[in-house]
Amino acid sequence: MNNARRRLLKFGATGAGAALFAPLLRHLATAQSRPVRRFVFVLEGNCAEPRAFLSPMARAGIDPLLRSPIATDRWWYNRYQDRPVTSLATADLASAAGLAALGGANSIVDRSTVVYGLSSQITGGGHSSEHGALSSARTVAGRPGGITIDALLGKTAMVRGNTPIEVFRLATGPLGEPVNYGLCANGPGQPAPMVVDPRSAYESLFSAVGTPAERAVFARRRRLLDFARTDANEALALFAPSSPERAKVEAYIAALEDATRRHQLFMSMEATLTRVRPPAPAMNPLYMNNDPINQYLAHMELATAALIGDLTRVVVVGHGPGGNWSFTYPTILPGVSRHDTHHQSGSNPAYVTAIHRVTGALVGGVATMARALAATPDPAGGTMLDSTLIVFLGDNGEQHHSTGSEFPLLLVGGQGLGFGAGGRTVVYPGLGTPRHRQLSNFWNTVGHAAGIELDAFGGERHFRVAPGPLSELRA
């Protein structure tokens, strides 16, 4: 049990603390007996190409499963034959164009799995499926068709535990837009915000242990919450029981109470926040320019700190989600936007290399997070990476103008959650075959790892090939 929880329990033994925290302490006592489950979803806006995940050993094993060999192709979703699901030993994953960061002195190849063959045509593909990648439902005119997997997990008590943040959501994008609503959703027609500016995200996590001015702002938030809650409770008397207006006020009060709970928990976690806090933006080179890769890496650094500090157990980091992906990468291909890079890549091999280098840089952030978690003991035993599944995928499928015909995945960690050992590539039969499976089946698998029966997740309905999880990914 960390120092913050010890202080909380000590305070809870006093008269005032006992009254305030009795329900919370009962929740903590129950939570101690449950396994900790953490989930991280990292999405590359406007596709992560299958070629970026393909190692030489994987290509040698996949070619016999296709109607014609891969050769120099960047995607091959329309060439899978009706074969049994195949698991290939691919100890050379770090040789793939986008996976070099998995190798090296502290290799995590044996904790990593590549998955091919899963489709999600219900999402529409295109430049971005928006909320569809995480919901397996269609977004229309910016309105999500269903809840995304992160929101469902964050609302699950056995996953969230007693963490102050339900889901920590971050998005690389234009800094002039404070939030991005294009990737996550709390339900049909309910987009959820992602923080874009890493400075704002840093402040949201660490202002409680920041400068005197930042601490004063943090303390003032509590007074504002108390005022708003008192005002809302008084307003309840104006509305008849069971009226729609009263229900809205009650929902508002519930949100205020949850915000107050989060504030209380942050106040009790001073030692933890101080321990896990990364270098402040003013001294951190990741905040010194507008390179979208650095913005993304700053987000990943914050997400890692939030996980290690047990501020959250569900994280989403989107690199240009929901259409905000047309970056220029000064250290990879200066002066050419991502959109133009894709459009000109058919006749320019250097642009293909640049596209895969971007994926490699994003996987680098995943690898850094994974190594930090692997180096951190988990209170329940093992390391934090054992009880954390990191999922990396593109937000629209396999190519720039996608049809959602294949969503290649990179999975890291999660062995303590029942996911099989890494160093392998798992290939599912393609579209139109009886043994084909969909991205929604993978979200079913994630749900089962979280302790939820989730066989009906997604909006495919009669387009669903088969319900339930992917047993081949489980240990």
Low-confidence stretches: 1-33
Instruction: Write down the domain tally.
Output: 1
**SS-derived structural category:** alpha/beta
Query: How many beta-strand segments?
Result: 12
Please give the CATH class: Alpha Beta
Shape: globular
Assign the CATH architecture. 3-Layer(aba) Sandwich
- Describe the strand arrangement of the main beta sheet, using strand numbers: 2-12-3-11-10-1-7-4
Overall description:
- The chain has helices at residues 3-12, 15-31, 56-62, 132-135, 149-154, 157-160, 198-206, 212-235, 244-268, 270-276, 292-308, 338-344, 349-374, 439-449; strands spanning 38-44, 86-89, 112-116, 168-172, 179-187, 190-195, 314-319, 328-329, 333-337, 388-394, 409-413, 424-427.
- It is globular, with a radius of gyration of 23 Å.
- By secondary structure, the chain is α/β, with parallel strands linked by helices.
- 47% of the residues are buried.
- Residues 1-33 have low confidence and may be disordered.
- It has one domain (3-7, 36-201, 290-473): Alkaline Phosphatase, subunit A.
- The protein starts with a helix and ends in a 26-residue tail after the last helix.
